[in-house]
Prior knowledge:
Elements: H1 2-12, H2 15-33, H3 39-46, H4 55-80, H5 92-100, H6 104-137, H7 142-153, H8 156-159, H9 163-176, E1 180-181, E2 188-189, H10 203-222, H11 228-233, H12 242-247, H13 249-264, H14 270-284, H15 296-320, H16 326-337, H17 344-349, H18 351-380, H19 387-404, H20 410-427, H21 433-455, H22 462-465, H23 467-491
Helix pairs in contact: 1-18, 2-4, 2-18, 3-4, 3-16, 4-5, 4-6, 4-15, 4-16, 4-18, 5-6, 6-13, 6-15, 6-18, 7-21, 7-23, 9-21, 10-19, 10-20, 13-14, 13-15, 14-15, 19-20
Amino acid sequence: MADFFRIGFxxxxxxxxxxxxxxxxxxxxxxxxxxxxxxxxxxxxxIPLTFGMDAVPALVxxxxxxxxxxxxxxxTAILINAPGTPGAAxxxxxxxxxxxxxxxxxxxxxxxxxxxxxxxLSAFVLIFLAQKIAFVALEFSGQxxxxxxxxxxxxxxxxxxxxxxxxxxxxxxFTVGFIGLDGITSVQRFTFGSVRMMSGVNMIPVIxxxxxxxxxxxxxxxxxxxxxxxxIGRINxxxxxxxxxxxxxxxxxxxxxxxxxxGILPGAGANIASFVSYNEAxxxxxxxELFGTGVEEGVAACETANNAVTGGAMIPMLTLGIPGDAVxxxxxxxxxxxxxxxxxxxxxEHMDVVYPIYAAMVLANIFVLIIGLAAARPVxxxxxxxxxxxxxxxxxxxxxxxxxxxxxxxxxxxxxVFGILGFVxxxxxxxVMPIVLGLLLGEMVERYxxxxxxxxxxxxxxxxxxxxxxxxxxxxxxxxxxxxxxDIKKNWLPQKQAK
Length: 499
């Protein structure tokens, strides 16, 4: 550990590397706050610029963008109800209601603090337990990944105000996930002869459509400025009272653990971590019915978890060469371009690179906290911009983000269609979040179910003979039954009259 501080921090605290970390966090935050422009895109565009740099400066710049990009998505999720990144989709459930109550500063402050804490805690897990945890995750097979995906889908029933409408929306998202080529047989499904639909429906245009475009249509429907958004942009305080922060400590700890563990699992990512953590925070709350109305725990759970993914996803990337998410897949290529192959040899022969990576992860999250809190007041002014400027601005960034996600004009049409659909569902009082969750996890459920069945030669009991998958499936079933029971008790059974 002495070598970590002597080599790692001594290297990263040089003027050049410190500047690159700060610049990376700032750039990542700006990019992450623009709907559709993710940290993956920013790092991909900057990798060619790092070819002429030494390994450590190149990696600390990219890691700063990574940490800042995950955090940045919460800013627009809170202020204008349009998540900048898929990982911030769950943040708007309580973040935007807090902003509408005139607590935008508190929401931004909690998001910033949660992001920094989640990122730093996962960075320390990376430092102390990287190799041990990675080899445990390596034992996971299709059965475990299927069970995790089903557990994620079970969250749909707790995210919806109306159980039936939530299930309908979730099944719709699940069905949309089937569009494209079959992952195993490559048979076309629901493509209607369209070449563009053969690649399936891209998640980013769907999220931009359901939230950003729907928000544009809602703003247009409201008509002229009525002063309501001035409340969102008014900042009275950045952080909530001390007693609230102490109340959030269990949420910080629980969500950090969830985010780190989800990050370790290849292919899971920040969006799944935030939804799972939100559901667990709601389950642990004494007042779960308040979630979705502007609860501090809701914002803290999502932002702690999705930023804790950063350290978790680095673990299999560095120790096994298996990227935990899309961003670390790009970082893996950057590491290999610099001439370093991940794996056991990296730790035995190149700790002069590993230690600075550790230090950069810690410092990047410290600067997320500093930059986020310093920028909260000026950033909140976004919500006070006149609608005649705000609506075109959101529309432009939404279209740019949608197009940049793949480079196809087709995704602009997807964004528009789902934006109109989201507005119609809003008018019908449907929740759109289950659509996102169904689309996100539906493809994973199918893929891992079929993989597991192939490995088990058609024996469906394989999901229950492996302990981890069995436990997760039981938890998923109990979660569904409990929420169905609460819905029946609330809406179908006669209520006791108050005396």
